[in-house]
Design goal:
- This protein is of the alpha+beta class.
- The chain has 42 helices and 16 strands.
- Among the domains are: about 210 residues, Nucleotide cyclase, GGDEF domain (Alpha-Beta Plaits); about 140 residues, ABC-type transport auxiliary lipoprotein component (Rossmann fold); about 120 residues, Serine Threonine Protein Phosphatase 5, Tetratricopeptide repeat (Alpha Horseshoe); about 140 residues, Serine Threonine Protein Phosphatase 5, Tetratricopeptide repeat.
- Helix content is about 60%, strand content about 10%.
- The longest helix is centred in the N-terminal third of the chain and has 22 residues.
Amino acid sequence: MTDHPPHSPESKPQVRTLLLTDLCESTTLVERLGDALAAALFREHDRLVLELQQRWRGRLIDRSDGLLLLFERPIDGLGFALDYMRGLHDLGQARKLKLQARAGLHVGEVLTWHNSDEAVRAGAKSLEVEGLAKPLAGRLMSLARPGQILLSAVAEPMSHRAASELGERGQHLVWKSYGRWRFKGVPTAQEIHEVGEPGLAALRMPKHTAKAWRDIPLWRRPIALAAEIGLVAVLGTGAWFLTRSPPAIAFNERDWVVVGDLRNLTGQPVLDESLEQAFRISLEQSRYVNVLSDLKVRDTLALMKRKPEEPLDRATASEVALRDGARAVILPTVAEVGGRVRVSAEVIDPHTQTTVYAQSADGTGAASALDSIDKVTGELRNQLGEAVDAIERDSAPLPKVTTGNIDALKIYALGNHERASGDRKKALAYYQRAVDLDPNFALAILAAGQMQATLGDLPAARREFDRAAKLREHLSGRETLLLDANIAKFGPIEPLLQRWQQMVALYPDSFNAQFALAFDGMNFANKYAEGLPHAKAASVPQNERQGMAIYLQGILLLGMDKYAEAIRAFNASRETAFKGAVYQFAYAYAAQHDWNNVEKLLKQRAEAGVASADLDIPYNDMLFSVDRGRWLQAEKAAKAMLEASENAEPLLAPLKGRVNLLAVKILAGREPMAGLERQVIAEIAAVDRQADELNAIYPRYADIYRLALGYWGSRMESLGIVERALASMKGAHEFDGYPPLAQMHQVLLADRDRLRGNPKLAVARLENISRQDAAVVPLHRSLMVAAIADGKTATALREAEWLSAHRGRAYVEQGADGLPAVFNIADTTLAQLTAAELYDQLGRKDEARESLARFLKAWPESELPEKELRRAKAVSSYSARSGLGQSK
């Protein structure tokens, strides 16, 4: 008996995607490698095919030197073909070979049937495929050059429409049409297309063969063309050149351009960087045209295995544009023609590297070049489709929004190069030198302020921003918005977020604004879900900090307690060039008590030598130790952090180190509370003495520490400390516009109410706020404690469950400068103990037992503070639980 009778069709003819491939020069490969090495290579090849077949849901019909596969959808066949081409390239690279295949993809009706078992045993395939679609796919495959994927006119539009399913790679694919071709044995002409990745694909016209040739109309055949060309020449070649229209380019609003290196033919070196920078500034004023940043271009060159300093000429810039999804290349030139300085620029189609548009403008002397650039870029923007009134509205003259001093402009450009390379101190020095040459160079002053901020000198940054604000008429509209946002950082959060929102509305592809809107909203307003769309908007390939933006997505998702999604984002960021900020990645595992992966990440970080601030290492060691209930290790890490702070920022770092050490000691419960109370009071007095210095770093910085230390007092049940902290803020506790600070202020007021014996007032003060998604973790904890004191068990249990379920938020939340983080993380575990007590009171014994078990799993009994051990033993399920309490 056989499973199928011979030649029994599986079904009626069905539409399927067929992919035919052929491994190029496979026979020569065997001769070159020898049988043993070739066999090993082909085994790896077969593993690659099997993996891709499963990934893209293909059905392998036949395999020899080539493959025949069936797919349900064209995009799956294309995905297989693209991955197969790249996989061959990687296999070859590992052996210093050039491995390539040719491929043909077609969609059409096929008939399939199973051969009999006897036929299979005799060497036949188990499944047969027939139909006109099969020879068409074969003709496409045989026509393809090595490394080339050819598609039929049926397969191309279906694949093109679904290319977004290929993710980021789908944005970089190049699609080309090669017109209509005749295939031997096929009655009608077929239009063929190519799709491929730059650097791997052939992207060239296929070669004519005996079985395939281009379907050229009669009037375009050689004899006819010769006669026509002769006629055109007789009628006047010159007239044709004068009247021809430039070819169009399919440029749309917010498409991207790559600015190539400026060709300086004047012999004046001062014009090199200065005019190239001016070209960028002029174009970047547009809301219609997006300019790929110089840093992103250099990153792409590195991915192309090119040196960062390689000239960005027509060919190289076109390749960069294709890889980064830019629609056009702009090549600027400055030359001296007849005693005049001529600035010109060409718009290049990166697919063909042909000039689509060209513009030029002349002036007298080097200083005229800035006005000429304005004219040239304005004309180019118009030719790319930007409306004239928009160009006039969004553009200010370059000498006004930069500087008329060419030397200052060149030094500013050198500063940008240093900034892109990551040397902020050198960049700052260049910006300051540019301002020395032109004190009204507002753009350089703004850049200097930004560098001061990133270097941590906020007072100096504020002085630069205020200085730039007095020269705002010398800034473009875009840079004015950026300046206003930077100034707004020194005030309430809502105006700051509004500034970023304005910039995003006007310039949606301003990645810095999108990133800042998400980042500042998270840090200063506890907004997580709201920031996610903006982090995603910044996570596109054209952003040189794409990896950082993807990493920010991970932090936001972690703050939303979406651990799996956060880890996927963190991993995705690692697939870019971004390798920094390891700790937040580790938080995603720590929030799930997955300490093996935390330690693995920290080990990888240490082995990779990832740069990090000195205080980061002991600070995070402290957090992780607290989360694991390892109090001696936590105190040791806190002391190491305090010691390291001696070499850090002289005012803030030691204060933060002392405050965190106190938090650990309070939780550990190993020292008398009276002594710790005196230390907290002494710290409040120190903050009062240093208030002016702290507030010069950031407004309300002194109150941030007063709020934190007051909260420390409430954790020790010290009404005196809470009242002392609140009194020190008298006249300065209006926190409108600073949401986390306003909430922490309410926490202290509620804790004061509870400690004064009025928990009902404390609950009323906090309950409505707690229902807001942006409510800080300490507020939930204080409400829980107040509700227990007020006898509101249901409210207390709700808050305990919230704390237990929001470990990601506890790790990410910055709150009052991140100071409550030690308590927040501990509270997600302590909430399990509180929940066990509350379940016990309600008679819900099973839930009490489970909650207690989770608590004791997180914090080992051997290291439990005495207070928590007594509480655990008081839960009725403690002794009944196997293994619990036996060692005590």
